[in-house]
Input
Amino acid sequence: MLYIPPVRSLWLEEALRGDDEAPRLTGEERADVCIVGGGYTGLWTAIRLKEQDQALDVVLLEGDVCGGGASGRNGGFVLSWWAKFGSLKKVCGGDEAVRLGRASAEAVDEIGAFCAEHGIDAHYRRDGWLWAATNAAQLGAWDETLAAIAVYGEQPFQRLDPAEVARRAGAQTHLGGVYEPSAATVQPALLARGLRRVAAERGVRIFERSPMTKLERSRPPRVVAAGGAVTAAKVVLALNAWAAALPEIRRSLVVIASDIVATAPAPERLEAIAWTDGMCISDSRMLVNYYRTTLDGRLVFGRGGGKLAFGGNVGTAFDGPSPRADAVTRTMRGLYPSLRDLPVTHSWMGPIDRTQVGLPFFSRLGGRDDIVYGLGYSGNGVGPTYLGGRILASLALGLNDEWSRAGLVREPVGQFPPEPFRYLGGRVVRRAVERKEEAEDNGGRADRLTLLLADLAPSGLVPLKKAEATSA
Output
């Protein structure tokens, strides 16, 4: 039987039942490519490498179990990059932003097709995403993004009237919104474990519970792990938030928790509010609320902007039940008063690797062609990691194609302050965002200083409609 780690999420508990255990790394190994990280990015990269060259010897090291990190703890939203088009355009230019927007939307369908082809029962449901407003200040948060996309002749979102938004969301607390029909939901840990199975079937040698303890910058590079080491011609770092431990990357990320609660199954209650499909919803605040239903009739409700990691030190500080479970539950019941008596049975949290622009980046560590990395999905990784795997496989193989030349293949955009200023400043900014959004929920407006501080927050799951602080 598989080693079951301390509580990570309801998703992972379900996905690990009856699963087989992968071996730990022991002794010295050699490989063509060594991938460090067994989440979506690492697994998709491994699968893409084998598609390019089945003869490649690929080793994948995971410090916990595959899916034990963010890939098994997220909300299971399979989204495109269209909501981040403004940031994509700034980073990549308009034409490339459109290409990546289209590719990311196509990736949602391709993930569903991959699951169907390989028998991965990840509870894939392509029922769209509702980008909503739950207070008056959030109304129109999407307008600038939709207008920028329309310049290029694209219309990935449908505008809905307020009554239709409330009907689809199952609650009158939803005041407006737009709908992206191409989005889907999955049980995220089942997807991760399914990718692990497919990678193993294709010959990828997977070692779990084998955390990297040192990256030797020798030529060829050598990955030292607890119990052994791998020397490989190429190393791919797919570490998510844990990459903040690397000196070259540390100031490019801020690691912050996202917290989730899940109710007891109650399909009849969801049917009563006419929310019986797999549509996912998020509101338009910086400390975003995001929520969806499950096949067995649970309401799963998350909130961004939780605890901060000092110095990028993730460790086990983001494991276990959510310390914000009561607050998240109150928000859930406020948005769904008809479900206020529905008991919460599970809570958990996980680390998010937030970048300044809310987009990932892919590059060569220290400029070396034999060590490549990709990270910084900033709360939207389930769908985009599908493309991330293509990018990293092309970089690792030294290919000159549309993925190795993608606009997100570049050094990180923007840096955060060094510690302790990043941690202390992050707490100040987060509290300002909380005050701003509390005031908006109450129909008011925060003071000028609060608005100025809140505007320093990096981009999250959806773009923040910046306050007109200078006119306050």
Residues 1-5, 467-472 have pLDDT under 50 and may be disordered. Residues 421-471 form one domain.
